[in-house]
Amino acid sequence: MLFAPSLDVIVVAFAPELAEDLLDAVQAQAAREDEMMKSIASGTYKGSYGN
Fold first, then answer.
1. Where exactly are the structural domains of the chain?
2. Residue 33 CA to chain centroid, in angstroms?
């Protein structure tokens, strides 16, 4: 039997001095994804290439 890690457990390692920039980048990506989900729900999503 092979060990398959749970997909809901993620471990990320990074240098502590990168924490603030990493948090900013993750929050910005989350905001972009939220906007994309809203546009999909409203039927206005154009795709990543504007199609």
1. 15-43
2. 7
Question: What is the Cβ-side half-sphere exposure of residue 18, based on CA atoms within 13 angstroms?
Answer: 7
pTM, whole model, 2 decimals? 0.66
- Which residue would you say has higher pLDDT here, 2 or 33? 33
Structure tokens, 13: 């390692």
Give residues with Cβ within 8 angstroms of 39, minimum separation 6: 45, 46
How many C-alpha atoms does 10 have within 13 Å on its Cβ side?
A: 3
Measured distance CA(48)–CA(36) in Å, rounded:
10
* Spatial distance between the Cα atoms of 37 and 18, rounded to a whole number of angstroms: 28
